[in-house]
Amino acid sequence: MQINVQSFASRSQPVFETKDAERAHALQRLAATCRIFGRRGYSEGLLGHVTVRDPELSDHFWVNPVGVPMHQVRVSHLVQVNQQGQVVHGSGMVNPVGLLLHTAVHQARPEVMAMCHAHALHASTWSAFERLLDPITQDACIFFEQQALILEPRVVRDPAAAAHFAAGFGDKRVAIHAGHGIFTTGQTVDEAAWWFVLMNRCCEAQLMAQAYGEPSLWAPDDARWLASVLGSPHFGWLSFQTLWDEIILSDADLVQ
What we know:
Layout: H1 5-9, H2 19-39, E1 49-53, E2 61-63, E3 79-81, E4 87-89, H3 96-108, E5 114-117, H4 121-127, H5 138-141, E6 147-150, H6 159-169, E7 174-177, E8 181-186, H7 189-212, H8 220-230, H9 233-250
Parallel strand pairs: 6-7
Antiparallel strand pairs: 1-2, 1-5, 2-3, 3-4, 5-8, 7-8
Helix pairs in contact: 2-7, 2-9, 3-6, 4-7, 7-9
Organism: Pararobbsia alpina
Keywords: Lyase
Domain Class II aldolase/adducin N-terminal: 28-207
């Protein structure tokens, strides 16, 4: 499949005639995100989860099950859970702690349709510094003033701790959870997935830069402008389409 550059630039988010069609589309993108994360080495054992709010039942969420390697996830593997994390559709097991965190953020943020977390090496390593990313590159500027730093609770065992986590997330697009890793959100699965891929790369860049010295920072006004343009929900969605075009070409079975 060849991509026409002009037609790509004009791509827009789809409009659906039915909730079933919207759901089918979202689940395909969720499965694709898992494949992409697995291929990039973000998945370790049973860790890593992506949630998307059901388009019809706003307090229900779809998530990849525990035990299916992320690079093998198909639409048919995905399970639906309620606000309490109980499986209501599908037969797979789910990560209870991961769902505590995700459902708490979804509940606190009605505009968040999707959320991603995985134990990507560079993001997890950067989180140990308990610092926000600095605007040292154009890519890093996308997250300028859009990051939350969550120091407590460090471990989430119950809904109260999860609510504390969600409060620490606030209204930011992404969060760094100390000693754990990063969480990204979006109005679509596509957007949330792209922020995760990009943020992990920015963590890698800052770790490399600081290993050699002290990198310079972009001016706040310039960083803020880049964040407003390249950090828009539509730009995040559009950026993901390059990853979708690649994964669906090589892994067409993900829609099964």
